[in-house]
Amino acid sequence: MTVLQTIILAIIQGLTEFLPVSSSGHLVITSSLYKIISGQDFIQAGSEEIFTDIMLHLGTLIAVIFFFRKDILNIIKAFIQACKTKDFSSLESKLPLYMLLGTFFTIIIAYPLNEFCEKMVSSPVIVGIFLIITGFILYLSEHLSKNTQNNQECTKITLKQSIIIGIAQGIAACPGISRSGMTICAGLLTGLNRTTAARYSFLLSIIIILGSSIFYPVLKLENQELAVFNWFNISIGFIISAIVGYFCVKYFMAFLNKYSMKCFAYYCWIVGLCAIIFFAISIN
63, 247, 172, 156: which is closest to 255 by C-alpha? Predict the structure, then answer.
């Protein structure tokens, strides 16, 4: 991967990780466009391409940790205090347990899809189909949950909600199915308002992104492979995705306080349809 390609992918990752439009789907479409322009074959992504994708996600993870740093510190303090007093009555003290349980259900759903998802990196048409599906999920969830969207009392997350949101996150392992979209929609449909659903969605992403960033290199890469990766490009992409991601989550949270996510549904339909038509013609 060239430095220009990495920079473009990093910007797209930073912009789309927190928006409900599937960052992984956009990375597949962008990478596929680059392959067409540069005359490369549509083969399954190599280990460096997959690793770069993971590092770009890690960059946006740094962004969400920095943005929610006060919330994270409060949650950690509340959990430690609860462990000392044996009193887990506050929501903050329960959140680490809820997040771990939600991540457990994410892994149960996502792990069997791992090989299928890796192959989809070279299948932009299927990604386009999944983007259209994401659009319908966004639209329907906003419509069906309109009675709770502006209810400021819908701020407490339950064990049942954490499990449902974790399952939704697992389904979103497929490129084109938005992780933030699925988890926020699951939150809306179970009674949370937009900002609470988004906050929990972004906090929940910390564990799964951190885990994949650690375990993929350990389980699937040899030291010899890591040694020949273009670490300059990867580092540039990591930094850019973190910076862009921070501003994206900042303004998206402000957006959710006032507006519906239906505009993102329209966007997913347009991009998905364009991807299906363009790549169906180009690849054949």
Answer: 247
Spatial neighbors of 155 by CB under 8 A, at least 6 apart, are 192, 193, 196
Cβ pair 241, 61 in contact under 8 A? no
Amino acid at 256: L
Question: Could you tell me the two tokens for 243?
Answer: 């910076």
Q: Around 228, how many Cα atoms within 13 Å sit in the side-chain half-sphere?
A: 8
The whole-number pLDDT of residue 45 equals: 54
Q: Which two tokens stand for residue 155?
A: 């701020």
Phi, psi of 256, deg, nearest 5: -65, -20
| Distance in angstroms (rounded) separating the CA atoms of residues 177 and 52 | 20
The three-point CA angle 214-180-146 to 5° equals 160
Report pLDDT for 136.
96
What is the per-residue pLDDT for 91? 85
pTM beyond 0.85: the answer is: yes
Altogether, the residues listed in the chain come to a count of 284
CB 61 within 8 A of CB 15: no
Q: Are 131 and 268 in contact (CB under 8 A)?
A: yes
172 and 178 in contact (C-beta within 8 Å)?
A: yes
pLDDT of residue 36: 82
Q: Which residues of the chain have a pLDDT value below 70?
A: 1, 40-46, 121, 146-155, 216-227, 284
Domain count of the chain?
A: 1
* Spatial separation of the C-alpha atoms in residues 143 and 43, rounded to whole Å: 40
Other beta carbons within 10 Å of 231? 12
Q: What is the token pair recorded at 131? A: 């983007």
Residues 6+ apart with CB under 8 A from 6: 52, 233, 234, 236, 237
Find the domain containing 222 and state its range. Answer: 3-283
Residue 216: predicted pLDDT: 65
